[in-house]
Amino acid sequence: MEQGFFHIGNTVERGVMWLTEHFSSVFDVIKDTGNNTIEGFENILLFCPFYVIIILLVAIALYKGGKSIAVLTGLGLLFIYGMGFWTETMQTLAMVLISTLMALVIAIPLGILSAKKPLLEKIIRPMLDLMQTMPAFVYLIPAVLFFSIGKLPGAFATIIFAMPPAVRLTSLGIKGVSAEVVEAARSFGATPMQILLKVELPLAKSSLLAGVNQTIMMSLSMVVIAGMIAAGGLGEKVLEGINNLDIALGFESGLAVVILAIILDRITQAFASKQKNKH
User: CATH for 10-278?
Assistant: First the structure.
């Protein structure tokens, strides 16, 4: 490897090591809380009989997406159960949903602020570019240093990787609200918070739901990679297939990931398209 002049990686490494040294007790509390939350949700999904979960997801798909998506959801989940990957699929689903929720809790307020503060948007935009283009494996390094191996570092890396689409689409949705509508609300005496909650967010809901869809897809792709650090789920099965050159295991576990991704994508897209039709 050639010697370079700029060693920004060394600076980042020193920063990460400083954080792990001085805030280890904080990271331990976050790790315990996060692991308990993810495992608790996993236990709920695994406690329910498989047919209850299938019926529930089919009902959601039928209500929002229609018969075709409901049939796709039912057949897809039954196929996963038939291949013997139900437990791993529920572990992956728990990780995806928790990671998506945490990513949205951070991303939506950031998107709102970036839409309303042009200077903040100029600061956030290159950071989002970096987060989206950085190889996903890189996020696993600080995650493991902060939280050791397991489910939480996988969720931590997933949250960072999955946030940018939600931030961008939230900002885009807020900016897309008609200035005349906002001005009309303001002329009737609405406060900025009332305008945000009762005008801008409802009108930007389709864009927000598209952000949720993209965040779920990004979370799912990262959760599989997180199998490398013992995060469990389908990602660990895919990795096991690769390590053992087990074509059958690798193909079946990969197919389970694809089916789960298609189901989640179709259901969340149905939510977004139904919202668009209202407008």
Answer: 1.10.3720.10
Could you read off the pLDDT of 91-117 as tens digits, one per residue?
999 888 888 898 899 999 999 999 888
Yes or no: say if 238 and 250 are a contact pair by the CB < 8 Å rule: yes
Q: Residue ranges of the alpha helices (H) in the chain?
A: 8-22, 24-47, 50-65, 67-83, 86-116, 118-133, 140-147, 151-175, 179-187, 192-195, 201-203, 205-225, 234-243, 247-278
Please classify residue 128 by burial: count the beta carbons closer than 10 Å to its beta carbon, then call 0-12 exposed, 13-18 middle and 19+ buried: buried
Measure the CA dihedral 91/97/100/106, to 10°.
-110
- What are the domain boundaries of the chain? 10-278
Entry pTM: 0.84
Average pLDDT of 51-71? 90
Residues 213-233: tens digit of each pLDDT = 888 888 888 877 777 777 778
